[in-house]
Design goal:
The protein is α/β, with parallel strands linked by helices and 350 residues long. It is built from twelve helices and 13 strands. A seven-stranded mixed β-sheet has the order 8-7-6-9-10-13-12, with helices on both faces. A four-stranded antiparallel β-sheet has the order 2-3-4-11, with no helix packed on it. A two-stranded antiparallel sheet has the order 1-5.
């Protein structure tokens, strides 16, 4: 039974100034609705004229933010059909991890290794393999903290690769799903409230987490405190300068109001990490999610729902999405920062 509308309503607060330079934001989008998970309310985004940062205004108050995640995708437990399909594809992912990322300890057959080597020549698949391990390929396994660990699948994978893993997740339903599905250690808390021991992790990952928090600089500063000297922080987040955002504007899937509170460009994410005292090593953009983002953004712009129609229309939709993905991959390969994700790698000085 659905919760009464009064229980689902979210109390909001104004957020008028840029967190990086304190400049007043200028309106970019107004009257946005949550077409993904049906959270009530009308939302808007402001843009900083100096920093290219976007932020939600009005935004949910901290005490009510959990209401925005009542039906979130990380709550779902894997059904038998999904588990079977994942098992069928696991050998391919492992082959790519062996060939593109050097994880030779994975138990894959000789033939599977050759398949992985062949597919590893494709830039998109090679990029997907590295992103699947949060660009920690080539890093000696140690203690790994995943902030916003969701359903725990990433931690389960990294434990197979030799890492000692711990997750932080403040959504209780996601914590239940991660423990049930993946049996990984997860603390139900925010990172700041967990009060973990300083300098106790070799790597910290934030996979589409930073855009969900009220205080991104504070979050990254806490990550810096927890990293050992020379430790690595890796952040993945939607890119406001992506090709799909330019094409679809207010229908871009990456907006996801009211859950995405801050949205970054490569430049603004770099400034956020530097403000937290981190040494930024590399900032790139990735086209690996371009097909899915394009398909959902197109559906939102046309029908405010998932793609539907005849099988022929679905085939055309898939071909259009592949063409868009190929175009974005070419532009990203030409050093244009228009990929759907920003990937930032930072360290703590020894």
């Amino acid at each position: 039974m659905a919760a009464p509308e009064s229980d689902r309503a979210i109390r909001t607060e104004a957020a008028r100034d840029c967190l990086l330079c304190a400049s007043p934001g200028t309106p970019l989008y107004e009257g946005l609705r949550d077409v993904l998970f049906g959270i009530p309310g009308a939302w808007g985004f402001l843009r900083c004229p100096s920093c290219s940062l976007l932020w939600l205004n009005p935004r949910p108050e901290l005490r009510d933010i959990a209401k925005a995640y009542q039906n979130y995708h990380t709550h779902a437990r894997d059904d038998p059909a999904h588990i079977k399909s994942q098992a069928c594809l696991r050998w391919l992912r492992d082959a790519l991890l062996v060939s593109s990322c050097g994880y030779t300890q994975l138990p894959v057959s000789h033939g599977c290794r050759w398949v992985g080597k062949a597919l590893g020549f494709l830039p998109t698949l090679r990029e997907m393999a590295r992103a699947n391990v949060m660009f920690l390929d080539g890093v000696r396994p140690g203690r790994l903290l995943d902030v916003g660990s969701g359903n725990g699948r990433f931690l389960h994978k990294m434990r197979r690769l030799g890492w000692g893993v711990l997750g932080i997740e403040n959504d209780p339903q996601a914590v239940i799903a991660s423990r049930h599905t993946c049996d990984v250690p997860v603390i139900e808390s925010t990172l700041e409230e967990a009060n973990l021991k300083g300098q106790s992790f070799d790597a910290i990952t934030l996979r589409h987490t930073i855009e969900h928090v009220h205080a991104p600089i504070g979050l990254l500063a806490e990550c810096r405190r927890l990293l050992r000297p020379g430790g690595r922080l890796v952040v993945l987040t939607p890119n406001v300068e992506s090709l799909a955002h330019r094409a679809f504007g207010p229908s871009w899937r990456g907006l996801e109001a009211p859950r995405h509170l801050h949205l970054f460009s490569p430049g603004s994410l770099t400034r956020t990490a530097q403000a937290a005292g981190l040494n930024v090593q590399r900032v790139t953009t990735s086209a690996r999610t371009a097909y899915g983002i394009w398909s959902l953004s197109r559906a939102i712009s046309r029908t405010s729902s998932l793609p539907a129609g005849s099988p022929l229309a679905a085939r055309r939709l898939r071909l259009d999405g592949l063409a868009f993905h190929a175009l974005e991959q070419c532009l990203v390969s030409s050093s244009m920062g228009c990929g759907e994700e920003v990937a930032l790698v930072a360290t703590v000085a020894p």
